[in-house]
Amino acid sequence: MTQTNQSINVTYRGEPIAHIPQATDRAIRMEELKRLIGLSKTTIYEMIKNGEFDPGFLIGKRARGWYLSTAISWLESRKQGGAV
């Protein structure tokens, strides 16, 4: 994990929707992932099944997490013409 003073501004249709400090990476759960990328749980799991989204990692017996940086990278790739 690298400490840095940079930050990321996430936009949707040209409007800022989040300002995320990039000082540290952290794990996020499904509810936060859904809010951040704007997709339903069903769509996310379907994309994982099809190899279109990172499967994340287990943080408990039934709990799954994703790194915030992974979700942000996925969002950034959508800006550059990637299809959902």
From TrEMBL:
InterPro entries: AlpA (IPR010260). This is AlpA family phage regulatory protein. It comes from Thiothrix subterranea. The lineage of its organism: Bacteria, Pseudomonadati, Pseudomonadota, Gammaproteobacteria, Thiotrichales.
